[in-house]
Design a protein that fits this description.
The complex is a heterodimer of chains A (257) and B (262).
Chain A: E1 9-20, E2 23-34, E3 38-42, H1 49-57, E4 64-69, E5 78-81, H2 93-97, H3 99-103, H4 110-120, H5 136-148, E6 154-158, H6 166-183, E7 186-191, H7 194-200, E8 203-207, E9 214-219, H8 234-251, H9 253-256
Parallel strand pairs in A: 3-7, 3-8, 5-6, 6-7
Antiparallel strand pairs in A: 1-2, 1-4, 8-9
Chain B: H1 2-29, H2 40-49, H3 51-85, H4 87-102, H5 105-117, H6 121-146, H7 150-158, H8 163-201, H9 209-218, H10 222-251
Helix pairs in contact in B: 2-10, 3-4, 3-6, 3-8, 3-9, 4-6, 5-6, 5-8, 6-8, 8-9, 8-10, 9-10
The chains are: A alpha/beta (257), B mainly alpha (262).
């Protein structure tokens, strides 16, 4: 599927603002995420990227404006992957991955689902391992398996690979991409890395420093599947340069106001 | 790991044996009088001679200590849950928990004895030991219940977890290591509390090890005094090791404190 193909919005931000006491985190934000999109949000720290994810996940309320879901998604199923693996240290990989099913009292076929989710992220053989026995990359894989187990229509990732070494991060990027292409769910991915955003996404949104606004909304018109060779592609470098320049612009004080 | 375990047991035991032999030798060599410092052999002989009565006292002290620890655990944990569910309860009651904790138990022991202890010394001992023991469990459990990973809490919210699910699957496991650390401290303190209370209670119906120590001291039966002291230490060590074993058993698979590098 190409990103140029018209598709319906899965989620729609209409003039959304978010204030914490006197602090305006997000100001009058309007954009929509289409079904099947891989959208990355890039911006300086404190621009409200994570707040957007929390609003979508229902962990925070908009102070003004509205977040509308597609009428075909009445139960707003999201998966969330945090910056840290956020596993329960007292529970095995298997029990961590099945947590969403346990909490929803959804035991039907859960053993199959758990096995399936664990094998999709490449953690077979580690079902009984405790989080403390895993490497950082493997913990992230377990976290990803947990987010995917409910077959969410929207996957929210909050700088999930920021703490990993580069080789592990590249590998997880590729694995995430192939999971996404097979699963056809929608992704909103927060990162501080322009390079990671361009590599993964079909659309990159650059945000301004607080109060967060959209500074740039760029389609990355390079077809999938993408692999390591894309990093050597001139188009990749052009996009990275264009976005880096835009990010530099928004971070200098005179253009931010 | 095996060799380090061996070293952890063998080294202190060898040190203890050396110390005892040296003690025995010095006492004999300098002919120290028995009411100043009895030789280990004399203490051992006294332990054998007074074994039945000392065992009765050991049982008495052990029973009070254990009961106080159980009540301290129940009370401390119940209060901790109350404090973490109701902010009002915490702000209202916590200062009084602190007051109980910082008031030296020796100074309130006579009062408690007068109020409840005239006919029921055991009850007074229990109350006093409880006062000494409950605070570490309370404060550690409150700390544990509050130190839940905020991201995990959000995750539970995303999946619509009920209050019970959050409590059972998140708060209690998160608090467990802190609770167990508090329990280990309280185990030692409940013995201290019992002994102190026994000392203050004096003769009035209390027949625990502390009473034996006082009685033997008054009669200048110093070897018997040491024998009772020895049993008291053994009891304290046994409590400490049982609680450490419990902690290891519950945490060994996941908590950093229980994991040793292989």
């Amino acid at each position: 599927m190409s990103s140029l193909e018209p598709s319906e919005p899965l989620i729609d931000f209409a003039g959304v603002s978010r204030r914490f006491d006197n602090l305006v985190a997000l100001s009058d934000l309007s954009f929509s995420v289409n079904r099947g999109d891989f959208v990355s949000l890039v911006g300086p720290s404190g621009c409200g990227k994570s707040t957007i994810l929390r609003l979508i996940a229902g962990l925070a309320e908009a102070s003004a404006g509205e977040i509308r879901w597609s009428a075909r998604e009445p139960d707003h199923r999201v998966g969330f992957v945090f910056q840290e693996p956020t596993l329960m240290p007292w529970a095995s990989v298997e029990r961590n991955v099945r947590l969403p099913l346990d909490l929803q009292g959804n035991a039907v076929g859960s053993a199959d689902k758990v096995r399936n989710a664990i094998s999709r992220v490449g953690l077979e053989g580690f079902e009984r391992a405790m989080p403390g026995e895993l490497s950082g990359g493997m913990k992230m894989r377990a976290s990803l398996a947990r987010a995917l187990i409910t077959s969410p229509s929207l996957l929210l990732l909050d700088e999930p690979f920021a703490a990993l070494d580069e080789i592990t991060r590249f590998k997880l990027n590729d694995d995430l991409l192939s999971l996404w292409q097979n699963g056809r769910w929608t992704v909103v991915f927060v990162t501080h890395s322009v390079y990671e955003a361009v590599y993964l996404s079909n659309r990159v949104i650059v945000m301004t420093p607080r109060p967060g606004r959209i500074a740039e909304d760029i389609s990355i018109d390079v077809p999938y599947p993408r692999d390591e060779s894309f990093r050597a592609d001139p188009a990749y470098h052009d996009y990275c340069q264009q976005l880096s320049a835009r990010l530099r612009d928004v971070m200098t004080p005179e253009s931010a106001g | 790991m095996k060799s380090s375990l061996l070293a952890r047991i063998v080294a202190p035991v060898l040190f203890g044996i050396t110390l005892i032999l040296l003690w025995e030798f010095l006492v004999r060599y300098f002919e120290v009088r028995v009411f100043v410092l009895p030789a280990p052999s004399a203490i051992w002989a006294s332990l054998i001679e007074n074994f039945p009565s000392l065992m009765v006292s050991l049982w008495f002290t052990f029973r009070i200590t254990l009961l106080a620890l159980v009540l301290a655990t129940l009370g401390g944990v119940a209060l901790a849950f109350l404090f973490t569910t109701s902010r009002a309860a915490e702000t209202t009651l916590f200062p009084y928990a602190v007051v109980l904790q910082v008031t030296p138990v020796v100074s309130i022991a006579p009062l408690i004895l007068i109020w409840v202890g005239v006919d029921h010394v055991e009850r007074a001992l229990l109350i006093l030991a409880w006062i000494v023991a409950f605070f570490p469990i309370l404060s550690n459990t409150v700390f544990g219940l509050k130190s839940v990973d905020p991201n995990l809490r959000d995750l539970f919210r995303i999946y619509g977890a009920s209050r019970w699910q959050v409590l059972l699957r998140l708060n209690i496991p998160s608090a467990l290591p802190h609770f167990l650390a508090g329990l280990k401290i309280s185990g030692g303190l409940s013995l201290v509390g019992t002994v102190v209370a026994e000392f203050v209670a004096g003769s009035g119906g209390s027949t625990g090890l502390a009473w034996r120590i006082m009685e033997a001291g008054n009669r200048l039966q110093i070897p018997k005094m040491f024998a009772a002291l020895l049993l008291l230490s053994v009891l304290g060590i046994a409590i400490y090791f049982s609680l450490s074993a419990l902690e290891h058993l519950l945490l060994r698979r996941w908590h950093v404190s229980a994991r040793r590098e292989g």
